[in-house]
């Protein structure tokens, strides 16, 4: 999708200030209100803007552990893979899932209340998902950079 300077500015601002009013947004990007509103609608309808959400403080919600879990599946059977992905999608403590190249099939980002809770999630749930052969876990000691902001060029 081709974007002009105003649309790129709109995206930069909305990434950090999703609740900004159209009036203020229009002023900041140098447009009148109606054209600004139309640009935002176009970005939404084209799928560039997928959704609006609030960013929550993980630790303040009692989720003290962040683990990155590498998952290897037995075989890449379609049914087992669909069942695995359905279980991943249904688990609220798995906040990201990426299909990977390399020695593991998937990388999961898992948040948990404690190490005991993570142990239960991994041993009683993830390891029992369809097709899971093995998992390896790495734990985040500290988030050095934690951003959902994408570069807009």
Describe this structure in words.
The structure is a single chain. The protein has 153 residues and is an alpha+beta fold. The protein folds into two domains: 41 residues, Orthogonal Bundle (Arc Repressor Mutant, subunit A), CATH 1.10.10.10; 81 residues, Lrp/AsnC effector binding domain/regulation of amino acid metabolism (RAM) domain (Alpha-Beta Plaits, 2-Layer Sandwich), CATH 3.30.70. Helix content is 37%, strand content 20%. The protein has five helices and four strands, in the order αααβαββαβ. It is elongated, with a radius of gyration of 20 Å. The N and C termini lie close together (12 Å). The mean pLDDT is 96.
Task: Give a quick set of tags describing it.
alpha+beta; elongated; 2 domains; Alpha-Beta Plaits; Arc Repressor Mutant, subunit A; 20% strand; 5 helices; four-stranded antiparallel β-sheet; 153 residues
Query: How many β strands by DSSP?
Result: 4
Class inferred from helices and paired strands: alpha+beta
Principal-axis shape equals elongated
Strand order of the largest sheet: 2-3-1-4
How much strand? 15-25%
The fourth-level CATH homologous superfamily of the largest domain is: Lrp/AsnC effector binding domain/regulation of amino acid metabolism (RAM) domain
Q: What's the CATH architecture name of the largest domain?
A: 2-Layer Sandwich
CATH topological fold name of the largest domain: Alpha-Beta Plaits
Q: Can you count the helices? A: 5
What is the domain total for the residues? 2
Mean pLDDT: 96
CATH class label of the largest domain: Alpha Beta
- The string of secondary-structure elements, in order, is HHHEHEEHE
Cα-atom radius of gyration? 20 Å
| Cα distance spanning the termini | 12 Å
Main sheet, how many strands, which sense, barrel? 4 strands, antiparallel
């Amino acid at each position: 999708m081709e974007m002009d300077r105003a649309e790129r500015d709109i995206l930069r601002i909305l990434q950090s200030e999703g609740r900004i009013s159209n009036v203020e947004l229009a002023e900041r990007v140098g447009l009148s209100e109606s054209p600004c509103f139309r640009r935002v609608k176009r970005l939404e309808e084209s799928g560039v803007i997928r959704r609006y959400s609030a960013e929550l403080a993980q630790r303040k919600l009692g989720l003290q552990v962040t683990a990155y879990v590498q998952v290897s599946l037995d075989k890449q059977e379609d049914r087992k893979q669909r069942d695995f992905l359905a279980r991943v999608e249904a688990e609220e403590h798995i906040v990201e899932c990426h299909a990977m190249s390399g020695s593991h099939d998937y990388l999961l980002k898992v948040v948990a209340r404690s190490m005991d809770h993570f142990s239960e999630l991994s041993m009683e749930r993830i390891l029992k998902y369809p097709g899971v052969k093995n998992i390896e876990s790495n734990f985040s000691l500290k988030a050095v950079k934690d951003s959902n902001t994408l570069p807009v060029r």
